[in-house]
Amino acid sequence: MKKSIYDTSIFFERYQQLRQNPISINEVVEKPIMFSLLPDLTGKKVLDLGCGTGVHLTRYLELGAKKVVGLDLSALMLQQAETDLSARWKKGQDFSLYCLPMERLNEIAESDFDVITSSFAFHYIENFPDLLAKISAKMTACSTLVFSQEHPIVTCYKEGYRWEKNEAKQQVAYRLNYYRDEGERDRSWFQQSFKTYHRTMATILNNLIQCGFRIEQIEEPMLTEKPEWHNEFKDLQHRPPLLFVKATNA
After folding, report:
1. Residue-wise over 133-160: b if at least 16 C-beta within 10 A, else e?
2. Is 118 helix (H, G, I), strand (E, B) or coil?
3. What is the arrangement of strands in the sheet containing 242-249, beginning at the earlier edge strand?
4. What's the longest Cα–Cα distance across the chain?
5. Are 163 and 174 in contact (CB under 8 A)?
6. What residues form DSSP beta bridges with 97?
7. What is d(CA 138, CA 166) in angstroms, rounded to the nearest whole number?
8. Secondary structure element (H or E) that encloses residue 45, with its range
9. What is the pTM of this model?
10. For the chain, N or C: smaller number of CB within 10 Å?
11. Domains, the chain, ranges and CATH?
């Protein structure tokens, strides 16, 4: 089984520091929009793909979910998730956790989920149609899928300068040189190498449609829509960092 980059000690430590920042993109942008797209979770069975430390699982239980299931490749993430969840809920009854990549979703025991979510993770998936088929197979009739991922405008980057800047070194345009070139991208964060995958907006939406999903809502948050966002995100006036999709299985 492939190893998670989040199980590298320095990477996990830096990630935890980032998530604890109250003005991080996760706290200010991702979580509020993600939670706003959720249906009523009362009495529902919910699966979170790439659940990380279980922050979303905790919120789902607080919102009345009957049972939550988390799946993540990182053992360190799941250790933290189990510690936090066990402080308030019972393992096996209220929540279950699986250390597996999303691509092996079909191997988990549970099925018939009312809601399936994934936060900031689908850009790590190479074969998106295959994952969608496995997601669909785990859903009940009229279930809801809600996910966020890096926006295709962001994932398209391959090399060179990301930004065109003016004489004052101000960002004036985000470069889209490789937008139409789908496929693997080599990335680096905290001096750790990893891979993501670029798909155009059309490919993402068509993959969903072809797998039998009905698209209910799309969100592409940008700074002009959220003037209260911190100056740290001022570049978002040029492009959305994240894509949010809410869909139901037809």
Report:
1. bbbbebbeeebbbbbbbbbbbbbbbeee
2. strand
3. 95-99, 67-72, 45-49, 113-118, 139-150, 242-249, 213-219
4. 60
5. yes
6. 70
7. 50
8. strand 45-49
9. 0.90
10. N
11. 5-151+212-249 (3.40.50.150)
> Tokens representing 151?
């926006």
Of 2, 30, 28, nearest in space to 149 by CA: 30
Q: Give the strand pairing for 163-165 and 192-198.
A: unpaired
End-to-end CA distance of the chain: 33
Q: What is the enclosing helix (H) or strand (E) of 99?
A: strand 95-99
CA angle, 174 then 176 then 177, to 5°: 130
DSSP label at 91?
Answer: B
For 33, other C-beta atoms within 10 Å of its C-beta total 17
In 3D space, the residue among 121, 106, 107, 151 whose CA is nearest the CA of residue 48 turns out to be 121
Rounded to whole angstroms, the Cα distance separating 240 from 225 reads 11
Residues 219 and 127: their CA atoms lie apart, in Å, by 23
Tens digits of pLDDT across the chain (250 residues): 566 766 666 666 666 666 677 777 888 889 999 999 999 999 999 999 999 999 999 999 999 999 999 999 998 889 999 999 999 999 999 999 999 999 999 999 899 999 999 999 999 999 999 999 999 999 998 999 999 999 999 999 998 888 888 898 888 888 899 999 999 999 877 667 789 999 999 999 999 999 999 999 999 998 766 666 666 677 777 789 899 999 999 7
At 43, the amino acid letter reads G
